[in-house]
Amino acid sequence: MYAVSIRYPRKDGETFDFDHWANVHMPLGVATFRRTNGIAPRKVMVQHATFGMDGQPASADAYATIWLLFDTRAGLDGFMRLHNDPVASANLAEDFGNYAPLPPRIVMGEVTVFEDMEAVLKRGESLLESVKR
Asked: What is the pLDDT of residue 44?
């Protein structure tokens, strides 16, 4: 699996309009992506209403992190094409100021999911035993 990670950095005294992002920007982006590339993400996951280890929103460095998940590398290549094409992405770029105070930070790569927690715990317990003092 492959993912585009989009993080919206926090700016003191500003807000992030999640409702606008979820109801306007994200559907506009997915439709534009499919029209431009002939494919769409398999799934979109969002971490929002974020806060830091002290429980306070201000201590989180981002308002939201979005993952666009794709089955193949073609999704990442398509995202780069769309992002770097000012004509294809014009509507998306014009919408940024409607929900976020700063432009997003984007990272792409492969995703590995560790679903077998019993195996992970078994390995972890073994490692704990080997480092006992």
From this structure: 97
Helical packing angle, 26-37 and 74-83, nearest 10°: 110
Length of the chain: 133
Do 41 and 30 meet the contact criterion of CB atoms below 8 Å apart? yes
**Contact between residue 70 and residue 1 where contact means Cβ atoms under 8 Å apart:** yes
Q: What is the pLDDT of residue 132?
A: 76
- Region of residue 28 (phi > 0: left; psi between -120 and 50: alpha; otherwise: beta): alpha
Query: Percentages helix, strand, coil for the chain, rounded to the nearest 5?
Result: 40, 20, 35
Taking every pair of C-alpha atoms in the chain, what is the biggest distance, in angstroms?
62
Q: 33: closest CA among 6, 68, 65?
A: 68
DSSP 25-38: IHHHHHHHHHHHHS
